[in-house]
Prior knowledge:
Residues 16-270 form the Extradiol ring-cleavage dioxygenase class III enzyme subunit B domain. The chain has 292 residues and is an alpha/beta fold.
Amino acid sequence: MSAAAITTATKRTPVFFISHGGPNLLENQDKPGHFYNWLGNYLKNELKPKAIVIISAHWQGQGNDGVFVETSEKPKLIYDFFNFPRRYYEVKWDHRGSPAIAEQVVDLLKKSGIKASGNKHGNDHGVWVPLMRAMKSNPDIPIIEVSTFEHEDMEMHTKMGEALAPLRDENVVIIGSGSAVHNLSTLWTYGDKPSPKFVHDFDKDMENIACRFTSDERNNLANQLDKHASFRKCHPTAEHLVPFHVALGAAGSDKGKKLLQDYYSTLSWGSYAFGLPEDTTLPTYDGSQASI
Length: 292
C-alpha cells in the first residue's frame, strides 16, 4: 500500500449506530447519558468532522427504492413524540444543515442506483434528541438527515450504507439512529421488571454480528435478522433496526465495538462504533475512562 493510501485509510472517520430514546434523553444521567456525554466530546474535540450524515428511524422514503435527504440550511426541529412535558416541545437548538453536502449525498445514492431526492423535512427526534444530548451547542458541525427506505428490506439498507461510505474519506461521520430493540407496545407490560429474555437474546445476537464479523459476512448475517426467532417481539416494525444495516454497509471491513449496553423493559440501548482507532478512550459508565 502506498504512503498516500495509508494516510487516507488512517483519516477515515468511524461509523456509528446509536439507540436514541425519547426527549427525556436530554436529561438522562444514567448509562445512556454517560454514553452521549462521551459521544459529544469525541465528535467535537477528537473527530471534528466536516459534517454528520445521520439516518433516522423516524423518516421513511417513498416507493420501493426511494429515500429523502434533508437539504435545509437551518432544518426545523420536529417534535414527533407524545405525552411528554411541555418543556420538550419548546426546545431550541443552534444547529445547521448543509445544502451542498446534502446534494453530495443525493448524488452518491443516485450513482448507486438508489432513487434519492432533496426534501426540506426538518430534523425529527431521532436526529436532534441524541445529537443535542451529545452536543448541547452545535453551531459548527452541519447535520444532514437521511431517511430510510419505506420498506423493511435489510439488504437494500445495507447497500445504502455502502453507497454513503465514500463520505468517510472526506471527514464526514455517518450515524444510523434507531434502537437495538424497540417494542413500545409491550413497554408497560414489563415496566420496571427485568427485560425479558427475548430482548437480551436479540441484543446479544446483534452484538455478535456487529463485533465478531466484518464485510460481506457481517452484512449477510445482519440481513437475516428478520428471520430471528425474536425479531417481531423486538421490532414489530423494522424502522428502528434498519439504520443498523445502513451503518454496517458504510462500515465495510472495519471492526465493530459495542459502546453502550443497557435495557429498559422491551427497549435496548445497544450502540456501536465501527472503525475506531485502537487507542480511543471510552467511558466505563462509572465516571472513569478506559481505552479499547
